[in-house]
């Protein structure tokens, strides 16, 4: 099959991005352009950044044991490399001694790649015979042994290899699968050698690959329909079959398809076009070819089929089996634990079995991310229009100059196709730039600011692994992303779901550490040589997560409901968190913003009339024409929002009511006068009918369960929780603490009495489970994959905050403080702190008594701040929390020592009592000591960030308080003085070194 036939009928999108593990690494070089790579260790790697002839001073060494290679390079990037293997002997003469010191520390087990210098040059099938003859003269054919002449550093050190991976073809999906398999094996500690030998141009390179085959413990051969006319694949099959270590992987094939008779006689749809006397391509050796193909049927232990929907399972099975055969029991145990964890934590919501429509959007998302569509989506896909060509496009920021015009012209002439344009991504330490090959355009930030925003958004980028879905609240963005994740999760190692709310996105991103198995703590992100600033420590933690996402192992990162392009805490761009685009990891962002990072989003529109009708009809499908017309009226009035349509369908399914009566009830429901503010309230401000629909639901709950319906109060409480899954027990506990609302709904309760006839008896005296079940059945809440948790849509929570009675926020804070676990409920504890301390410009929403404040600080604030600082390296958030806590403690202290007028104005000694501190001295002492503890904690954290002067001031206050109350000889006072001595010494050293 010709290479062009591998592409989709919509045209191929060139993948030209080399993998870059970290934009800040100065010694990194992608092994896409090197003939050597090591799975667990670093190697001397060759680079060419331009199309000019490469020189040895481009050679760098990587000290990262897991970022050494990219296995299978991209065709266009490899076309730029002009090194020959014979040039490698010059490497030691030009590499620096420090680099070789790094190199000497690596493990001696080094694998070699498939001489990728020429592995993807254009070699056609009709040239295999000539290449094979050259190969026979200089190397060895099957059945012959010959030691290849090699002066290269890596080949001299090649002693053994765990797995040899052979493949043939340039189909993007095949390369993606092989890259993933190689990277997964390397992460698990198995050395790999990847080769497409049909791309090797000389016998010397063939000799290196053959030596790797000889020393490999197992030979994995990825079989496609093109493999059977590739002489090298047939040779690999025979070679590894005789060694009894063949591991075939049938890619888009099955073992039943690989029968000699069917191939030769062109039987079946698969071989009608691609079958025949394929041994001709093998050099005319029919018997050897048939023996190799028949040998696949005798490999009973390995039946690995890689189809469109089981990539992850196939790779996991392959790695597990290879680990067992190699005696790596720890790898098998680790993979088993990981599989169990993924089954529980991969998705935040269960799959919506009633998901309808969105075929076009799902297909377009697939095309945006992969640059191709497959399967049933290909039939439903739409015709793409040619985009206007652009010359230079910057996403985020850029400080580089314009690329040479001649280089762009060469790229256009060599790589462009009709209606498409080649795209090259560059990345330096402070630059992420996409170059396109058309009309020049330099995008300069307005006003010269580093993070200035462009006026116009760019076109959608196809095949770059980044997609943005935009739409109003409640239109179904999360449902679309969830369905996409469930449909395509097998193409990724794991789906990583990140809440995009601005106050929580950084913590949600760092929470990925457990899934990625990296440590983002302070101890692991700091250098012993010097003390890093707080900003550097936070950057180090984020970069550790970024780095894991920038390997060749594909992940799907979904950022749901992104509120802002900048982080709420330090106003840095959200793009700083994300891995670079164009890699194996894909990113989908859902947002209400018109654009994100200057990318044109996929704007989510309303469901079609048929789909909306199906969603509203619920379980009843035979409404008369008049009722169908009423449903269409309801659809328009609810703003055609998917959330509103789903609630209408749930009411019609749960209650004995027809659409006309429901419409009349909604219209008669009084519309409360709320003052909506903020962009998030836009949907509710313009859609009063949706607000009335919410009121109908709450009235139904109140009528079914009495005036203090637990379901209604749970909704009211939900508005103050964080935008994350809420434990049902904690939500119900909060609901019980909400004060009873004012009476005055008797009229509407009587109005709904006839509407809910027969409904009351089955909904009396509800428990927590019954109340949550009611919320789920009416689509007010949605279930979570975590047992005992539920989610609420942001529109529901926004309306709940407006509708809630006084005391709901206080009830939430008290419930979280008394029952919240810092490990499991950290998001909701942060939400309570936002209400208590008034972060930023937000006012305080809840006031606590002094005794409650002391309990909060000791049991919640201090553990939360220390965990946030140490475990997640979120220094600024932890320090801000402690600063605001100190301010509240000082305010409480001032209140206690302020003179008050009491009816008992004399003590037992007939002395006048002037302050509350004198009335309750134990409370005042406890408050003072707690304040000293917070000050000492802040000082110790300042010590970790190098802010010795601030820490010195804080610890002196703590020492004064402890000395005044506890005395100089108390252990706490002595410990505080030790901290003071350390800070004073470090501060003096800094002043000595900085003084002129």
TrEMBL record:
InterPro entries: AAA+_ATPase, P-loop_NTPase, TIR_dom, Toll_tir_struct_dom_sf, WHD_plant. It holds the Pfam family WHD_plant_disease. Residues 1-21, 431-452 are annotated as: Disordered. GO terms for biological process: recombinational repair; signal transduction. Residues 443-452 have a biased composition (Basic residues). Residues 159-278 form the TIR domain. Gene3D superfamilies: P-loop containing nucleotide triphosphate hydrolases, Toll/interleukin-1 receptor homology (TIR) domain. PANTHER family: DISEASE RESISTANCE PROTEIN (TIR-NBS CLASS) (PTHR32472:SF11), DNA REPAIR PROTEIN RADA (PTHR32472). This is TIR domain-containing protein.
